[in-house]
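Q: I have 140 residues here and want to know how they pack in 3D. Can you give me a structure?
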Amino acid sequence: MDMLPDSPRLTILGYVRSSLTHRDAAPKSGDEGAPEAWIELDPGYAPALLGLAPGQRVLVVTWLHEGDRTTLQCHPRADKNRPKRGVFATRSPDRPNPIGLHEVEILEIAAPARLRISPLEAIHGTPVLDVKSVGTRLGD
């Protein structure tokens, strides 16, 4: 595949601060008992939080940095009794580009650019790529 000379760059906006410190201890998804966590964004992104409020649902996009980028198939939920699937048909962190998409609730917003959210299955130190509001309409 040819790359354009001015290819876009991926920017890490911040990091997850969580009690989950090892991938093996993390739930497979947030609704399986994942804890609260903090998203600490670079303070320069504080203006981007305008319009967010506690109680609001957002999508947090992460780079699952401990994912195995060579994995193309896996057993869903790591259950060897289930047939393998291609990783594009699973939520596995092991994939060619290990991007995580997490729907969470904002519990608190703190200065300079911190969000306390729940639930989040990403481990401590996971890079955050974006935060997007859930349910907004085009133009909002």
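Q: Anything worth noting?
A: Residues 20 and 30 are 12 Å apart (CA to CA). The chain is about 0% helix and 30% strand.
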